[in-house]
Amino acid sequence: MEKMQVKDAQGKLGVLVIGVGGAVATTFIAGTMIARKGLGIPVGSITQLATIRLGKREENRFPKIKDVIPLADLNDIVFGGWDIFEEDAYAAARHAEVLTVEDLDKVKEELQAIKPMKAVFDQNFVKRLHGTWVKEAPTKWDLMEAVRKDIRDFKANNHLDRVVCIWCGSTEVFTKIGDVHQTLPALQKAMKENSNEIAPSMIYAYAALAEGIPYINGAPNLTVDMPAIWDFSAQQQTPICGKDFKTGQTMLKTVISPMLKTRMLGLNGWFSTNILGNRDGEVLDDPGSFKTKEESKLSVIDNILQPDLYPQLYGNVYHKVRINYYPPRKDNKEGWDNIDIFGWLGYPMQLKVDFLCRDSILAAPLCLDLVLFTDLAKRAGFSGIQSWLSFYFKSPMHDNEHIAEHDLFIQYVKLKNTLRQIIGEETIDFID
Questions:
Q1: pTM listed for this prediction
Q2: Percent with pLDDT over 70 in the chain
Q3: Separation between Cα atoms, residue 277 and residue 273, nearest integer Å
């Protein structure tokens, strides 16, 4: 197989984070800084720790991904971003209370140097937050142009070769796709006319693509999941991916559901509830924002189990998802699942899962991998929806001609096979 022509990862890579002062963002940034100093292990990061099999099984070639895939070096990453609050990344990380002060102090000066740019903010899209460090402009088009200027200035001031943009901000209220999202001219017109169908995340995404910068949607917001942006991404020859980082409860669903289907075990109901006390939990306490998250979480089971093909097993599943804001838990989320299954002759059984996880600790390595992989995709000449990165998302993006793949293990094979194709190695189907 011929090796792809991939531009070298030379120079500095800028990472612009929307919501740079949030729990996920500061955990990602501080953890990356700690890891590149050799003061911590980037556990959970495929780009840094995972191996990839190359060639036939008997060849016994299992190099680390980072040793054979032309990824940017951690030491070449420069962080920046926007936030609705003015505090620097160190102060924000202290406020988030995810990492210990001892760990944060290992990179204190570097974190303090990250001062957020004023954010694009609209109270109508995030009811529970009240931004104090926000941009003002006559129209949403003008706000987009202000974001473009931020990107250009950040790139020039830091002498960057490339930039990637990643959304680590809060979940916006549920937005149905409408006429303004169907074509690029309609989207542009809507921004100029201050349409209430244009969310802040869409403004960032448009600005990034206008500058030829890959955009990663880490929340379940509509953002780049629309025909207008798909077209724009293709025009700009720039990758997009999303949506909603797959971390705790939904990650388990993408593992357990394939197990049930593979063994032809039936499912009657799946009840999921969460308690979460960080800013994300507060935002999701609003019904509008929760609706966006709910849509993302509910899509997983049906896609994997294919009830149309297996009506006897999955044709009448009752699936309920709840998220409860509980401040004492802070970033330490608890996801509890009650799963009613049935086996031979319809005899009932149950699975119960209680996942006491750390939301930002699980999300941080995903951010790192996605930044490095989308930068790779841009240098490889990829554009549009990066379905090979579905592994990282609760609700993987897909166009109108395809369906999403939710099975974690199928997603993982696709991820690694794409990496093999990039470096000219044969893809693997595991039949050998």
A1: 0.93
A2: 98
A3: 14
